Amino acid sequence: MRFSILSAGLLLFSAACSSDGATGKVGDHSTLINTGFDDMAGWVPATPSLTKERARSGLYSIKTDKDIEYSLTYRQLLADVVSSKPRKLRLTGWVNTSGPDADAILSLQILSSKDGSTVFNEGVNVKEQVKKPGSWQQVSHEFVLPEKAISTDELRVFLWRAGSGAPVYLDDVELQLVE
Ligand SMILES: [Ca+2]
């Protein structure tokens, strides 16, 4: 699935996702990002996307709804996430939808550091994978990155409201280096 997100808007904040300093090296299936969002409260600008309405871990998750098109967003240079050129990344998250019409895309995006143009933009359609509203379900996808992605490009991970605007919650997000 491809879609265009060029106007990410004001709700894009740099999220201080925790990462394990012992990982992030090529050669194993390293965990590059691993967060349950609970450490972020107080450290990021106030945003309605960071919510205590539902949580799989701790007290917090992030959400999209009728007023939040883009969730709190992870933004980091590729070079600061992984030490050499990644070819394949696995993104995993736990999603809780508020009803059968709730829809969102768990998105992985790479933007050019030169001009902000989109180098890569794919996502996991939550509605296609989550069949039981109200319960936490895991979604996962492996993204094959294009050869043109370079270390100075910016990696973004976020939830994008794609459908009705009914709330969709995301918790316990992990990004792994596959190869
Ligand atoms: Ca949490």
UniProtKB/TrEMBL annotation:
According to its UniProt entry, this protein's organism is Hymenobacter jeollabukensis
Q: Which superkingdom?
A: Bacteria
The record's SUPFAM superfamilies line, in alphabetical order, gives: Galactose-binding domain-like (SSF49785)
State the PROSITE patterns in the record: PROKAR_LIPOPROTEIN (PS51257)
**Keywords from the named record:** Signal
Carries keyword tRNA processing? no
InterPro entries assigned to the protein according to its UniProt record, in alphabetical order:
Galactose-bd-like_sf (IPR008979)
Q: What name has this protein been given in UniProt?
A: CBM-cenC domain-containing protein
Tell me the leader sequence span.
1-18
